[in-house]
Amino acid sequence: MALIDNIKRISIAQAEEVVSFRRHLHAHPELSYEEFNTAKFIAEKLRSFGLTPQEGVATTGVVVLIEGKNPKRKTVALRADIDALPINEENNVTYKSINKGVMHACGHDVHTSSLLGTAQILNSIKNQFEGTVKLIFQPGEEKNPGGASYMIKEGVLQNPAPESIIGQHVMPLLPVGKIGFREGMYMASSDELYLKVIGKGGHGAAPELTVDPIVIASHIILGLQQIISRNANPKQPTVLTFGSISGKGATNIIPDEVTIAGTFRALNEDWRASGLQKIVKMAEGIADSMGAKCEVTISHGYPYLQNNPALTKRIRKAAEEYVGTENVVDLELAMGSEDFAYYSHLIPASFYRLGTRNDSKGITSYVHTPTFDIDEGALEFGPGLMAWMAICELNS
């Protein structure tokens, strides 16, 4: 039997077990950097496969090596993120989250269970490939500065050093069975903005005795959009969004201060740095010109994500062999962000998408929503696909 056919057979045969992994993880989600039970579950499963995981990497990360013949020949890394989101699940399913206010609403339970399945496959055929596959179960993707940055600091890209790294992410816009790729620039950098406009509160009927931070905050929000429309290169996608404003006044009370929170996204590191400087300068200047003060705090997030073209071509070819050319599609540029980007700035990296949508089953909700779910049929071939990609990359 050809190796690819054997991988497909194993992937299908173990699918029910992989689904059980996913449902356990979905029912027991943990927030970023708090994934202690999740890490314990991952390590236990890896040991049950006969593997020896390294635990406690960046506190809750888990790393394991699967060594084929001639293990020093080449190393390829595969990555899954393991954390959940602060969202209260609204799905009515048997595996609904039991942790109130915490939910796997971004599919990290899928990524983790799929990579466990990949580990099982690779370990069972390790005498049929040369080299080493490093599996990285990474915490904290959803929270700055990103668990990838901590894993890298703790040496996850060393001992042995992978020549490339591959990451998988669910895509609820793609039908189950489809796989998406994009070469080059793919996802945006992401920084969090926190602004505090400090004025002077008072009675709403006597505004002349106040320095109204609500009016000033509105000027700042509108004024900062000029940075996007008149300072950003129109050929370079960029986004500035404010999603929270709080004044805590009343109909007849002008508060002393207003807080604003938002996000800044870019696809160029030079513009990212310049744009953030302009945001600070303009916000402070508008407030000052109106007799107030604006304090700007920036939580620096992930850099832009770039898919190495040569690596992406190779794993796309592997995917076409595994699922058929008709099931491999091109992805559009995305302004979402991913801390997998950190890896992409250090070694050849590629981040692809696993279709999980099924309109006939009503599985259509987007990520980061309380009704997000997947067609678990994706777990019949997802683990095998990643195993085949890793082997093809070892052989490249």
Your description of this structure?
It is built from ten helices and 16 strands. The model has no long low-confidence stretch (mean pLDDT 97). It is of the alpha/beta class and 396 residues long. The strands form four sheets. An eight-stranded mixed β-sheet has the order 1-2-4-3-5-16-6-15, sandwiched between helices. A four-stranded antiparallel β-sheet has the order 10-12-8-13, with helices on one face. A two-stranded antiparallel ribbon has the order 7-14. It is elongated, with a radius of gyration of 23 Å. It has two domains: 3-188 and 304-394, Aminopeptidase (3-Layer(aba) Sandwich); 189-300, Alpha-Beta Plaits, CATH 3.30.70. Helix 4 (108-124) crosses helix 10 (378-394).
Which H/E pattern describes the elements?
HHHEEEHEHEEEEEHEEEHEEHEHEH
Number of helices: 10
Low-confidence stretches: none
Mean pLDDT: 97
Number of self-contained structural domains: 2
- Radius of gyration from the CA trace? 23 Å
- According to CATH, the fold-level topology of the largest domain is Aminopeptidase
Main sheet summary: 8 strands, mixed
Under the CATH scheme, which architecture of the largest domain would be assigned?
3-Layer(aba) Sandwich
